[in-house]
Amino acid sequence: MPKTQTKQGLFQFYPHNLIWLGLAVLAIILDQWTKWIASTHLNYADPVPVLPFLNWTLLHNYGAAFSFLSDAGGWQHYLFTGLAGIVSIIFVFWLMRMPKHSIILPAAIALILGGALGNLIDRMTLGYVVDFIHVYYKDHHFPAFNIADSAITLGTILLLIDTFFLEKKRIQRAEVKHD
Prior knowledge:
By secondary structure, the protein is α+β, with helices and mostly antiparallel strands. It is built from 4 helices and 4 strands. 56% of the residues lie in helices and 13% in strands. α2 (75-96) runs antiparallel to α3. The chain is elongated and about 65 Å long.
């Protein structure tokens, strides 16, 4: 009986991974919807108390994470837009090549992808990223963020969990299959 060959190469996609693209799209939709609500219902830089440690505060971020390089003079807009575009393309290719049994890693990639694209949409259409979630404790304030930032953070946590705890199990399973 002839051995069946599996497709190899850069453009090998698995249809079952479309669900992970759906998760990325869901993150984008939730991000853009909540940014629209914040932009239409909040006054700029005017905090609206929600909980003793949480305000809705509309802010515009011209830099990267936590306003990094926001006062750099404008070149950072092109840098962050280009980086987000390149990383997003790489993540789509990576995501579509995931094995069927993987769950944590493709979820992580999908969340990071959705968050990156959500913020990229803002950068390309507005020239800045809309932030509105403001967490604080007494006089200690965490920089404002949005749903895209939350998706990126959750995705990164899942990626770290996969890397440090699940990769070893995948390697051991692969070794058992090859023995």
